[in-house]
Amino acid sequence: MSKGLTSKNDDYSQWYNEIVIKADLAEHSSVKGCMVIKPYGYSIWEKMQAVLDQKFKDTGHSNAYFPLFIPKSYFSKEAAHVEGFATECAVVTHYRLKNDGNGNIVVDETAKLEEELIVRPTSETIIWNTYKGWIESYRDLPLLINQWANVVRWEMRTRLFLRTTEFLWQEGHTAHATSQEAIEETERMLDVYADFSENWMAVPVVKGKKTANERFAGALETYCIEALMQDGKALQAGTSHFLGQNFAKAFDVKFTSKEGKLEHVWATSWGVSTRLMGALIMAHSDDAGLVLPPKLAPIQVVIVPIYKGDEDLQKISLFVDELIVKLKGIGISVKYDDRDSQRPGFKFAEYELKGVPIRLAIGGRDMENGTVELARRDTKEKSTVPQEGLDLYIANLLDEIQANIFNKALQFRNEHITEANSYEEFKSLLDDKTGFIAAHWDGTPETEKRIKDETKATIRCIPLNNKQEDGVCMVTGKPSTQRVLFARAY
Amino acid sequence: MSKGLTSKNDDYSQWYNEIVIKADLAEHSSVKGCMVIKPYGYSIWEKMQAVLDQKFKDTGHSNAYFPLFIPKSYFSKEAAHVEGFATECAVVTHYRLKNDGNGNIVVDETAKLEEELIVRPTSETIIWNTYKGWIESYRDLPLLINQWANVVRWEMRTRLFLRTTEFLWQEGHTAHATSQEAIEETERMLDVYADFSENWMAVPVVKGKKTANERFAGALETYCIEALMQDGKALQAGTSHFLGQNFAKAFDVKFTSKEGKLEHVWATSWGVSTRLMGALIMAHSDDAGLVLPPKLAPIQVVIVPIYKGDEDLQKISLFVDELIVKLKGIGISVKYDDRDSQRPGFKFAEYELKGVPIRLAIGGRDMENGTVELARRDTKEKSTVPQEGLDLYIANLLDEIQANIFNKALQFRNEHITEANSYEEFKSLLDDKTGFIAAHWDGTPETEKRIKDETKATIRCIPLNNKQEDGVCMVTGKPSTQRVLFARAY
User: Fold this and answer.
1) Co-location of A275 and A141 in the same domain
2) A 340-369 near B (Cβ less than 8 A)
3) What tens digit of pLDDT does each residue of B80-139 get?
């Protein structure tokens, strides 16, 4: 295994790409813009899925599955949605191939669809078209459904996990009797995402609302969680949308209220995707490779024997086998790498690259002394630890590592929120890659657009419970009552 | 909730459709041939997935994810695969829609793909194209990978779960250094499927090999498990393919052996799909609705209070709350349905229709007597059971129900394997819907095809460890050494 990652300070983008490839997380496929998620990367995604899925179920949601294809006409039904999604999509026009007689496979032109089908870029339209048949009365509400699925948005410039033509995600789609209930649901799911991001991914986030310009196509309000990467760019890690009655009206979904009135249903949708993998990688990793928070690490502890002969190895393995039983018994995932085809140094570098939180090395002398050598991936500290009580020591250490990774990211994030009081200062901070910039803005889409055009910075969010203070817009000088968070973003 | 299912003896096909719809398992979507899997149906599929996924991991496999799209040219690379799969496929030709200015969404003809993309009908080609980059040496083998995914095969005549244009499945794709290892893998995964079918789904299966005519396109050998439905038709419940070196040669995947020789890799693939839902429904259900084996039932026990006033209900609920804690503590899933909007009789019918294995009803007199009324879904027996020790009673009963459902299906299957010694007898047995027919056949594809054309019966499999006996082909009178299993099939 070749190591030698590009340093993140030299070329952050290259450093990221190399970690994704060299840590065996994902690779570009031969299909433009689509990725292959490799087993190690997928096993991290599976852990994310399991945690999120349980949280969705704990908050009353059920999973279901809706079609991959959406009839083209559905996109015309919700006006704002049209502009947002009926653009860069994969379009299915035919349903048969044939052999042309010379061994070439060609499209059978006689098998043309009457109406083209779009590979779902998001499923609001097909789902609300289905909900029409499911909702009649207030007794059918709330309808709390989630779907795990693949979606396709045709992207010209792609980056593994961060922006790919096909990606995996979950999309929640709920229906409610009142506006208030729908807003509560939107906020509840934002909290679920923030909890997941902070307490599992160890990535601190700012919860906030998007400006009108940045809202989901068809939403009345888009809530988001915004994370900060180590290069000072922001990453939107999850969104939760209050859709009002827009989709209910577009697809004619009404219910009879307790009072016997026929009313349109209120909607939300919310989602996170394999993009979270990008956030996880970029938030914590270093020049030696991936750094994984223990709660999402497929392998939490790796054990490498250092031995001279078979007798040495046998003695070590006997101890390790017992340790593995103990560790698994308390829910810790562990791998024993006793391959004889690779030297310990090679293995050390490999697990460092793959972000395994704790590495144990055990040699003949350790066996004599009743110790092991323990290396932490997060701090790179090595120590000699007694074999006695090692399982509980490791259990505590994993918690400590989880907390340490979060606190490090939190400190970095907090140190990278800067106030700007003039447009010049704002631009200079951006050039210095200082992270989030809190600045006054006059509240108009025009000013927001001008800032974006001139600086590539966008308003990431208006934080929830934002401090109110009098000020003037840094661009127009018009009055403003609060600072909003700007950043360049992924 | 309206009940009144069509009787399975009157119209089996209609009975099946009604159960799928009325038990809230799935429904047809507005996209031709695609289904919506509803929350209750999906929760059964999730239980299937969880069990299978664990079995795959226990046998050393990892999950990964490969692209939804396959370049058209890949289908030309493996000759036999071409004929089998490059036919009824969804073809993506464009990647953009646009607004025509009149509010209509139309395909942007300037955004035409140079090479069309096919929505995967199965992933051998894209995966083996990827494996080329993953395999260099014997150290990279075996490569044991599974994918959970959606696939699309354009079907003209569809039936919910049994045959849909889009369906969900898992596909295992493994690479090995030797033919022997690949064959062992093929057989191992067949055993996994058989174990799952019999011990979780409670559906007995015959393990066997397909004839050349019925093999997977590109396979040297297709193993299968065949189940018998209550109408005497067979259903292929899983397949495992030994692909030889066909895909390795088509995609140039070679490895350096221990001896330093460059050789093509040996391959297998194996899969089961949401079709299993159809098998599960058809194997056990009755005229009152779905019958679910406890191990796959999302709700194993439902509790319905029978009460006159709030005081009654409070007393009952106090007892039920404690019972639920106990049941959940021993891993039993339970639902307490204390809705006041429906009468007990309505609820009884609903849970019967949904196949919940055990129903408890508890009224005021039960509370006085320290009893509950317990109804088994499989036998429809009702009994009065003491509240004391109820949790363990239920745990044992669930095991008994699981065994009973399997044994009933096994007895049915065994009673529906009949030997035919002449073609006339064969045809008459088919007309009587007697299930599997064991008959001698001369081993030629021509005779097999003639039988299929004339009777719609196919050779379901040549059972593994088949009894060898001298005989003559029922059609041609040519010599035969064994009986093979025929049936009409789903």
Assistant:
1) yes
2) 341
3) 676 777 689 999 999 999 988 887 889 999 999 999 999 999 999 999 999 999 999 999
* A84 part of a folded domain: no
User: B236 CA to chain A: closest CA distance, Å?
Assistant: 23
- Do A280 and A326 lie in one domain? The reply is no
A179-199 and A39-58 helices cross at what angle (nearest 10)? Answer: 140
CB pairs under 8 A between A and B: 187
Residues A486, A225, A68, A281, Cα dihedral to 10°: 90
Q: Are residues B425 and B451 in the same domain?
A: yes
**Residue A183 included in any domain:** yes
Q: Pick from B34, B38, B77, B97 the residue to mutate for testing the A interface (most A CBs within 10 Å).
A: B97
Q: Are A474 and A421 in contact (CB under 8 A)?
A: yes
Write out the residue range of the structural domain in which residue B303 sits: 299-397
Residue A415 to residue A396: CA distance in whole angstroms: 28
**Whether A31 and B95 lie within 8 Å, measured CB to CB:** no
Long-range (24+ apart) CB contacts under 8 A made by B94-98 are: B94/A90, B94/A91, B94/A93, B95/A88, B95/A89, B95/A90, B95/A91, B95/A154, B96/A87, B96/A88, B96/A89, B96/A91, B96/A154, B97/A72, B97/A75, B97/A86, B97/A87, B97/A89, B97/A91, B97/A118, B98/A86, B98/A87
Residue whose structure tokens are 């895909």: B247
Cα B166 from Cα B169, distance rounded (Å) = 10
Cβ–Cβ gap A31/B64 under 8 Å: no
Other C-beta atoms closer than 10 Å to the C-beta of B183 total 18
> A191: buried, middle or exposed (CB in 10 Å: 19+, 13-18, 0-12)?
middle
Is there a domain that residue B245 lies in?
Answer: yes
- B178 with B140, same domain: the answer is yes
Are A254 and A265 in contact by the 8 Å Cβ rule? The answer is yes
Chain B residues 91-110 within an 8 A CB cutoff of chain A: 91-99, 103-105, 107
CA distance A98 to chain B (A): 6
As a whole number of angstroms, the distance between CA B220 and CA B289 comes to: 41
Indicate if A141 and A27 belong to the same structural domain: yes
Number of H helices, E strands in chain B: 13, 26
| CATH number of the domain within which A472 lies | 3.30.110.30
Distance from CA of B76 to the nearest CA of A (A): 6
Cα B237 to chain centroid distance, Å, stands at 5
Res. A3: pLDDT tops 60: no
Chain A residue at shortest CA distance from B45: A64
| CATH number, position A358 | 3.40.50.800
Quote the minimal CA–CA distance from B472 to chain A in Å.
Answer: 39
Beta carbons within 8 Å of A62's beta carbon, 6+ residues apart: A144, A145, A146, B39, B42, B43
Same domain, A129 and A170: yes
Q: Are the Cβ atoms of B87 and A66 closer than 8 angstroms?
A: no
What does the buried/exposed string (b/e) look like for A26-57 if buried means 16 or more CB atoms within 10 Å of the residue's CB?
bbbbebbbbbbbbbbbbbbbbbbeebbbebbe
For chain A, the domain total comes to 3
Assess A243–B contact: CB distance below 8 Å, yes or no: no
Nearest residue, CB atoms, B39 vs list A64, A88, A94? A64
What are the pLDDT digits (tens) for B422-455? 999 999 999 999 999 999 999 999 999 999 999 9
Q: CATH number of the domain at B240, please.
A: 3.30.930.10
ipTM: 0.96
| H helices present in A62-178, as ranges | 79-85, 124-134
As a whole number of angstroms, the distance between CA A222 and CA A243 comes to: 8
Is 50 exceeded by the pLDDT of residue B405?
Answer: yes
> Which of A57, A81, A97, A128 would you mutate first to test chain B, the one with the most B CBs within 10 A?
A97
pLDDT at B1: 42
